[in-house]
Protein 1
Amino acid sequence: MKRSLLSMNDLDRQDILTILDTAGSMHDVQHREVKKLPTLRGRTVVNLFFEDSTRTRSSFEIAGKWLSADVINISGKGSSTSKGESLRDTVRTVAAMGVDGFVIRHSASGAAQQVSQWVDAVVINAGDGLHEHPTQALLDAYTMRQRLGDLEGLHVAIVGDLTHSRVLRSNLICLKTLGARVTVVAPPTLMPAGIQTWSQTEGFDTSYDLDAVLPGADAVMMLRVQRERMSGGFFPTEREYTVGYGLTRERLRLLQKHTVICHPGPMNRGLEIAADAADAAQSLVLDQVSAGVAIRMSVLYHLFAGEGSLS
Amino acid sequence: MNLLIKGADLIGTGRQDVLVRDGVVSEIGMLASGLLGSETVDQTIEADGLIALPGLVDLHTHLREPGREDAETIASGSAAAAVGGFTAILAMANTTPVTDTAEAAERVLDLGRLAALVDVQPVGAITKGLAGEELAELALMAHSRARVRVFSDDGRCVQDARVMRRALEYVRAFGGVVSQHAQDSQLADRHACCHEGELSGRLGLPGWPGIAEEVIVARDVMLARHTGSRIHIAHVSTAGSVEVIRWAKAQGIAVTAEVTPHHLMLTTDLLAGYDPTFKVNPPLRPAEDVQVLRAALADGTIDAVATDHAPHARHDKEHTFINAAFGVLGLETAFSVVSDVMVGSGLLDWAGVARVMSVAPAGIAGLSGHGRPIAVGEPANLTLVDPSATVTVDREASLSLSRNNPWHGRRLTGVVHATVLRGLPTVLKGELV
């Protein structure tokens, strides 16, 4: 396994399976009365969040604490970058204090990759702009695998604002590596530039027609659609978006019985996902949140404690 | 002061000796033939194996003075230019304060004269403060000591078609030309930083589509046709723009165009590692566009090479890609890149290099003492280049105050050996005199 996790491309199939399996053990810890493992005692992990986040930051914090690491949170708004310090100076300053690793979230694509070139510490990408969010893809895979078994050959539909989604980019790599078939669905204005050649190179499908895709899907991953996108002219009204691409109560009937529904959150109920879909028995939304801690424990464990056995 | 240049190949037409007296080419011939006079020579440049070109002219540099003297000064930029083989450079107006008055233009001219390494010709802003709203004092700049003829809001595009139309009409009174940074701000806003295509999609970087350049080029050539004025398109970067310019020239529209060395060689895929060194505006384009730009430069659709030399302090580049400053250095490497890419491939001969790096840019800028033939009675602005020498670019070796050099570590064939400004060597054996 590589030393840092910047992109899902850093993990091969075996790495992913190892992380998912370890996450299973960690998930058990999560349900114990005493949750603490001594594994990362004496290690210091800095959560460096330059962008607002509730679930990702808190799940990394809980994961680090349950592994006995010292976890420090630095948020961008109160940090030196808002005083005009460059990102490079900020991370090198914190690194000079002797920390072992950074978990970094930044609104700029490529930020984690750049940071990894500036410091010697382990760097974990907790979301960089529109680029990637590897631990989200891992927890999505973990959750789907729990319910559906091996993902090899399964068909996953990813639906919504593809252009502005780092979750999409990490999931495309992760699901392909695990052998799943992927179809991405969105109106043309919310498809990333160059998706036609991209989909050919990477072997996934694209569609503008959600109703045609849903009946063949084993999993449906709904992505958040920010209401602000309307002012950018990406779609005319919420109503029109929902009619075309929302997972509505009516569309639930198109799903097979075993088909699961995922959403990385936060959800816009009534826009991309109806309450009936979000709260359906097939919905894995809360399982995803629960898996988030286990996956982040597993990633921290493998990157900081190395390949040794779980104590 | 008499200078003798011995045995240079004059623009690829054959070896001759050139005698320069008081800044003017006074005799051309072979010493051995006895054609050259026997008067005393103060200085001799042995030019065996070198090609003599008319001194290079750069239509597009950013010198950062006044305002950001930590990144470049007129003196340091002049030194980099001389080492790059240039005898004249045009200094863009986007300094702080902006060159939008006669006084500001004269100040740039005077600082250039003080450095005395190249002729520094100020470009005037089209609009006050580069705001794109009201015309700057174009005529006062034109009639100042700086004799400004090229006007540009470079760094920003004149979005308002009405303002652009008025500027084109107005500069006709004094033979000016408007140089446009073509970027429709609705199609490529200030965050746009990666050629829009598969890579921008994968990297999650805001796309800068070719069409954002092409719609402005198309609009502006039509405005130039309507007004009968001269329009110059700065840093053309796409095949689509080339098509429009080719069409416009065929219609007889007075349009000229430039291409940068980086758009002739570097491609979009260099952005894959998010290294802000490769962040330029317009962005690096795919290889297909690069091929079209090279062919267009060879066939004359694109008139000139211009560096868009854009020095930046290190800390302005050490940000996330989307937040880092736009621009790369270009003055010291421009000749080597053109030699490597255009001459090495057979697309241009030495007369062609003289055309795109000296004659055409001097003509566009109206610099009467530059871009002249190497002939008796002409001002001795000359560049001697070694066509077979190679250089491995080292950013630390630069005379620029900045280090944002996208060529670092690349090996290029064709090196500037000496530069002569009005008969006085500014550079010998690649070193500033």
Protein 2
Amino acid sequence: MTLLVLVVDDEPDVEVLFRQQFRRELRGGRFTMEFAQSAAAALRRITDAAAASLILILSDINMPGMSGLDLLPKARAARPDVPIIMITAYGDAETKRMALEGGAEALLTKPIDFGMLRNEIETRVERAA
Amino acid sequence: MDQELIDALMRQHIGLEEPNVAAVFAQREAVQVADLNDEAASELNEITLRAGFRARLVAPLLRGEHVVGMLVVRRRTPGAFVQNTVDLIKTFAAQSAVAIENARLFHDVEASLQDLRTAQDRLVQTQKLASLGQLTAGIAHEIKNPLNFVNNFSAVSAELLDELRETLKSIKVVPEARDAIADLTDRLRDNLDKIVQHGKRADSIVKNMLLHSREGSGEHRPVDINALVEEAVNLAYHGARAEKQGFNVALERSFDPAAGKAEVFPQEITRVLLNLISNGFYAATKRKGQVNSEGYEPTLTAATKNLGDRVEIRIRDNGTGIPPEVKEKMFNPFFTTKPAGEGTGLGLSLSHDIVVKQHAGSIEVDTRPGEFTEFRVVLPRTAASQAKRGGQA
């Protein structure tokens, strides 16, 4: 079963960037990545039966409509087994507190440190393998 | 009355123990002495007699039940004051009391109005700072998103280019084309490195902006000044060490155990101290890097001093000092002497606003180029009219 990482961000360029940054892992089949451009779309994807192999959700916070913080409890309720890492430009203590209280496992700030993110994903991949 | 007598009376302290004064104060009624020769001897009695007076009438100036002053009338001929005169003097005393009271009230109103104006000015400044802070924070966050793409796309492009060069190695091309390809990819690689480098620079500017503009400034409360300064020194020191390899400035502390507490916005004062301390580190490090710096020991001194109703904080470095033409402009917004990318030019300007406009304190600088710079911040312990900053999140 291919392991799946879901990335939620309203900016389409995020997909281009992630696919390039993780090109080796994706090419080697370590895991696959899917992209949702809204929290609502992400929620549909999470509850989808085909998302059984989901091991990690990476979500932006500031998105039109449902925000990443609104998505958090819903996603946690649907899939308590899947950790969520928030990625945001707002790294202040208050945002961090809200994210962690909402059930996020960690909060990464933009600009994204892909070295750190790669480690986070690898840890989950190894655990799931 | 001649000038000599006026001077003598002015010098005389007339206390409640004086016979007439005590009686008037106790009875709240006019009291008279028909012949001062019959009065018990006292300095006041002697002065008055020497000046040629024989009778005295003292009427109270009353504000409600309170004696706020006394009206003294003296006459050169002995004898009791007739009732008409006493009544006249009492009426005059009553009118005077009203007039004095009005003047006092007017003065109070003026003083309150001045206090109110000062408080209002400070509130406006505080709000300005707050909205400037919010605006900066908003802009900084918005810049972070595109910056994320700039930095990460350029970094990944550099990697992709390396892969492209590896791939091209396995392809046979004519030597001229190979040279051209090597030259072009080298230049592309250099350019990408420059984009990464400048993107990181922009990122650190944004980080600094956010640091300078944390929304709201927390609460206004009594704070232990020595602890606040100690914390700021440590923060700045570790920040500098983390930022620059080989950073080394000796720290000296001279804390007055009686420095005590002052009512401040601790977060804002910390921001001021961080600015002053990191400027000091910068100047000391810069002097260390100059020629003829042998035997030079870069040192920063933080000192506090109890000034009664105020407290003083001094941050001194033995660095490059500040030339007069810079000293003139250094509190202006966006003025900086640091190389592009190292300073926003907002540090001292914000520090000035925080200390002077928000805390009603003062900030002064003493410096000698090539020798030292010392910033002296004086904060009032309490500022009753100090503006409270609203509850921004």
